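go over this:
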Amino acid sequence: MPWLQAHLEVEKSRAPLVELLFEQLGALSITLEDARDEPMLEPPPGAMPLWRDTRVTGLFEGATDADHLRARIDAALNLENSRNLSLEILEDQAWERAWLDHFQPMRFGRKLWICPTGREIDQPDATIIHLDPGLAFGTGTHPTTALCLEWIDGTDLQDKSVIDFGCGSGILAIAALKRGARQAIAVDHDPQALVATRSNARRNGVSERLTTLAADEFHPQETDVVLANILANVLIDLSALIRSLVSPWGQLLLSGVLQDQADQVIQAYAPDIGFEPPAVLEGWVRLQGLRA
């Protein structure tokens, strides 16, 4: 069955109005997206900021009369707001299968692979993480995640303890465990992230060595390796806490940082952490350091 999608770009103060209008007109789902490629730093728990120019998309049943829908939107909004309304037919398909068709096995470093279920890797010494679509961000496709996975592949984690702070899908903690870490704690304020992390850990046979904790359940403790792939503003705000998690001579890996933010993040962690030169990928940086 096909679907009808309505897209409308508005200034952020108008987005809640359009969202409510689409809901009243029978939208089955509503999505808010960035209309102008504006970076959005990770908000604190409970905050829901919007982009300056926001694209509101409503998904309607395919039988919806497009002309009637357009007329009702025009009647509810002035011409200035509704003139960029676009409607399109979205053909139905096996959505999970379509995602998997575009998600090919990816290698990070020499032998760490992210692989969807059913795909094979022809490398005898490969370390394979099986990952399918889930509830939380983190498949290795974003430069920040790729930078972290590359570091994990090239670092000796044998028998180390690990904290993945802001775990998302759990991909970094799982990778560390499959590369020899003794145990890992995955922490996130989003309950869906913890559900996804536990599911991915079971799929990869590491759940017995992984503990998942909500942020308000986590009691800070020193550990050998701390991984934090969040975003720069959060890394700076939480720098005192994250620094305290790194044991003496322990390793700290930070990502989610744009190139022009790197110096500010490094300053927030000095003098406790001595950093190596940043690794850069597509404008994002990875900061790896050692606690003296």
In short: Residues 38-49 have pLDDT under 50 and may be disordered. The first strand starts at residue 3 and ends at 11.
